[in-house]
Amino acid sequence: MTTRRDFLSRSAMTAAGFGAVTVGQALPAQVAESVKQMRPPKKPVIVTRDTGDASIDEAYKMLLDGADTLDACNHVCVARENDPNDHSVGYGGLPNEDGVVELDACCMQGPTRMAGSVGALQNIRHACLVSRIVMERTGHVMLVGRGAEHFAVMEGLKREDMLSDDARKMWLLWKEDRNSHNFWGPPLSSPQWKQPAPPPTLNHSAIPRHPGPEWADVIRTRSQQLMGMAGDLGIAPHKRAFAVEQVLWPTTGTIHISVVNTQGEMSGATTTSGQAWKIPGRVGDSPIIGAGCYTDQDVGSAGATGSGEENIKVAGAHTIVDCMRQGMSPKEAGLEALRRIVRNYNGDMNKIRYLDMIYYIVRKDGAYAGVSLWNTTASGSPKIFVVHDGEKRIEKCAWLLDGKTTN
Ligand code: ASP
Prior knowledge:
Low-confidence stretches: 200-205
Shape: globular
Strand content: 15-25%
Strand order of the largest sheet: 4-3-2-6-5-1-11-12
CATH class of the largest domain: Alpha Beta
Number of helices: 14
Number of domains: 2
CATH superfamily of the largest domain: (Glycosyl)asparaginase
Order of helices and strands: HHHEHHEEHEHHHHEEEEHHHHEEEEE
Number of strands: 13
Helix content: 25-40%
Radius of gyration: 23 Å
Distance between the termini: 61 Å
Structural class: alpha+beta
Bound molecules: aspartic acid
Largest sheet: 8 strands, mixed
CATH topology of the largest domain: Glutamine Phosphoribosylpyrophosphate, subunit 1, domain 1
């Protein structure tokens, strides 16, 4: 029981506590002098994934017209969430292993230093907007699962099925295949993990992400079988190869966008349907503040697409912003986060070759980078990102390791 004496002495201690450290002393001192001196860019800068639509140009126009930086981020995220042909985000995203689409998203608004996040959200299209409403209308930062869905409905968002017909058929293909990649068993990071060996019979194993030439026959046979099954399931001929690829090597996707305007105001947002065929309830890096997205109004903003579990373990976006705080360039900071991922595997390329990661980074002065773990996709094309600083263009990512990934 609290007595009046306890209460009075605690109040006195609290008051003394307030006086002990001045606000100035309590603020972080570790921003490098070079970063403190930086001026905002002359033009806004957007760094993101190639969306193939008009939303990045529209977001840029919003920034020129003085819109809030997080509104500009959300504009791009909403467009992706609406696109049924983007199978990594929102409506049309590939589902979990039960055939249910679960969405993850988060956002950070530099000037207000606020953050919001939503994980494993079902039946609501715009996860990015839910994360923003969590940020603006609750005392929490993160809501997940059924609570998040209920919250979104109570805030006026429509409940709707997120599983598109195309995504449903791809899930059926994955399910019917029986031999496909799933997330059960010891992970890559476990000493118990075993490298998949070429199977004794041609159609009896998950194919590794980077199969050597000894897998050629297996891949040919499995692909032919799956193409036939895709036809039986009614998948349109021009969509079959993509569906087969998602079964054999589920790709990563996601959209992250970081922006800075001419006032030096920054925001970042990330939205995704996460890893295809994931275990229900799995939450990736995308809604984790500090992993999938991090914005610090003193320094810069960063976010990620790729192997979510690896990114969580290095708190990728926060690591990058913190490295920039100490004076690193966006590119150096991104490479440093990637090195920490490689370090987590002691440089074991037999494991690292299964991983993928791209970081999108902008600093408060408008300096930017796209940084990738690998330099090319499986087909040998370079890893890319989009920048808009008055002119929208695709640029090659800087990279840490020479080699290919599947996406
Ligand atoms: N990072 C996302 C996740 O792990 C996936 C992706 O970027 O495609 O959920």
